[in-house]
Amino acid sequence: MGRVEGKKAFVTGAGSGLGRAISEMLASEGAKVCVTDINLDSAQATRDAINESNGDGTAFAFAHDVTSESEWQTTLEEGAEAMGGMSILVNNAGIGDGGTIEGTSFELWEKVHKVDLDSVFFGCKYALPYMREDAPSSIVNISSIAGLIAGHNMAAYNSAKAGVWMLSKSVALHCARKNYNIRCNSVHPSFVDTPILDSFTASLDRESLKEKLIRQIPLGRIGEVNDVAYAVLYLASDESKFVTGSELKVDGGISAM
Predict the structure, then answer these.
(1) Which position among 126, 130, 157, 234 bears the catalytic label?
(2) 126 catalytic per annotation
(3) Model confidence at 221: pLDDT above 80
(4) What's in the keyword line of the UniProt record (predicted)?
(5) pTM of the predicted structure, to 2 decimals
(6) Region 96-123 average pLDDT
């Protein structure tokens, strides 16, 4: 049996990058997966790849603007109906920003917080009723090492990802106090080779940026998407049944420096 056999997972931002890798990993380990993305074509591509590898009816795809409260309510209902329940929520959708406090407009500040933090609030809030019915359940929120370690040129991103970190702890304590049998944890990757790196390439081409970032990582390489997917798999599975309100760093050693 797979490590999440019989689980039903709802993964946002699943059309590419981390979200796609996480969805594929969970499906390969036995879960049904609802993949959502603001780009329906990319969500459907992830769905089709999963179903081709794991059998029809393993994955379902939905268009989903994670900044919309009403779309969260609708898509969660549709996803739970398609899968026959919901026991895993992965709040993965996010965008980057490379602005200093003086160089960040309020418009950009609001956009980053809506996508990276408000979406996690909506997901946790509106998924809980479904997850209570399908417990034991697990919420995994994708934060960032940038939510724990600040940078001079990531004002909005630092703030939003730090908010995800602390919100995860609040949700964990709420669920524990209510005896919901729902855990909530955050994952904190450092630099991973996904499209979000393009958000930080204002003055460097992508390869030059990667070389610069690698020099900051004790393990001497950029992270791969499955490095994060395996961390999510652990937290989504019952292997981590005594882990809640915690943060799992997948950072190549940066936070140890």
Answers:
(1) 157
(2) no
(3) yes
(4) DNA-binding, Glycosidase, Hydrolase, Oxidoreductase
(5) 0.95
(6) 96
